[in-house]
Fold:
Amino acid sequence: MKDKNVLIAQGITKTFDTGAPTEVLKGIDLEVNKGEFVAIVGESGSGKSTLLYILAGIDTPTEGSVVLADKDLATIGDAEMASLRRHDVAFVYQYDNLVPHLTAYENVTLPLLLDGLKEADYKDRVIALMTELGIGDRLKNYPNELSGGEQQRVAIARALAINPKLIFLDEPTGSLDRERGRQVMEILKDVNEKRGVALVMVTHSSAHAEYASRRIEIEDGRIK
Ligand SMILES: Nc1ncnc2c1ncn2[C@@H]1O[C@H](COP(=O)(O)OP(=O)(O)OP(=O)(O)O)[C@@H](O)[C@H]1O
Ligand SMILES: [Mg+2]
Structure:
């Protein structure tokens, strides 16, 4: 892989075969540089989430290849994939981001716990991170006690806690009102600029796509 890329996808197609086969993605090539912020836009049903899942290795393409943080997802083993998820890439879903019976702090630290790290080694760092994201006073609250914007910030904190190279985000502001959405976008911009974490974000909002350094549009299964 070229040193400058954190993600290289080539010739991605995806056909869903539920009765009649539908080719949702028809050949997508995408390279994301280290520290880049890419917005993916397109109409509802155009295949944005499908593409994001494939790029993140959550789903597999029908054809094509994805190299993510130097790993070819087609040939990577389970252990390597687990390691990639624990250390290099994180995913923020639009809905149901958080584990309901864990507090905000426990949600953020879950990936670190699963990685076998000792709490003493990350506690202060995580509290500082959550404070920076404006949820330092919500550590002990459960998700259902948090606003939508706070929940999204917890999900972003959880993604950041592993110090990833790249975060995928599917409509991170989709369920938020205008002001909360703007706040989350400012946080993401900051995360990208100050920490140098690459972001690949699906959004419906052309205003939010403006925060990205590059915008790609999916239309009829291809990049427009
Ligand atoms: N598992 C599946 N089986 C069959 N069809 C699917 C599956 N997942 C998605 N699709 C279809 O693929 C198309 C693209 O779906 P996708 O969720 O990627 O769109 P999207 O661009 O994210 O839309 P939205 O903006 O509404 O979230 C849709 O027509 C959808 O019905
Ligand atoms: Mg979607």
